[in-house]
Amino acid sequence: MTKVSVVVYGADVVCASCVNAPTSRNTFEWIQPLLERKYPDIQFEYTYIDFQNQTENLSDHDQHYIEQLEEDELFYPLITMNDEYVADGYIQTKQLTNFVDKHFANNENK
């Protein structure tokens, strides 16, 4: 079974550039059932990182994305899968499913 680590970097405050978008926490909560329903043969592990408050004991990889969020190079929520950038800002279902289809779902058929 394919395993995929999903990390959502977010904050309690809604991103100023993402008016009317769900909060980071809401995004974190809705992607879980979405991915598990669509990809029952993939084992997802989910992590939420509040990049404004939760900055201790994070990997260099996590720190790199947090720096980009703090410098407004990327928007939050930011989603990575197996340490690869997937989407940021206003997250849409198609962004996630296209990434999984391209990188992970095909592995199940091989």
Automatic annotation (TrEMBL):
SUPFAM superfamilies to which the protein is assigned, alphabetical: Thioredoxin-like
Gene3D superfamilies hit by this protein: Hypothetical protein sa0798
Source taxon at top rank: Bacteria
Protein name per its UniProtKB record: Disulfide oxidoreductase
Organism listed in the record: Staphylococcus devriesei
Entries under InterPro entries matching the protein: DUF1462, Thioredoxin-like_sf, YuzD-like_sp
Coiled coil stretches, renumbered: none
Transmembrane feature ranges: none
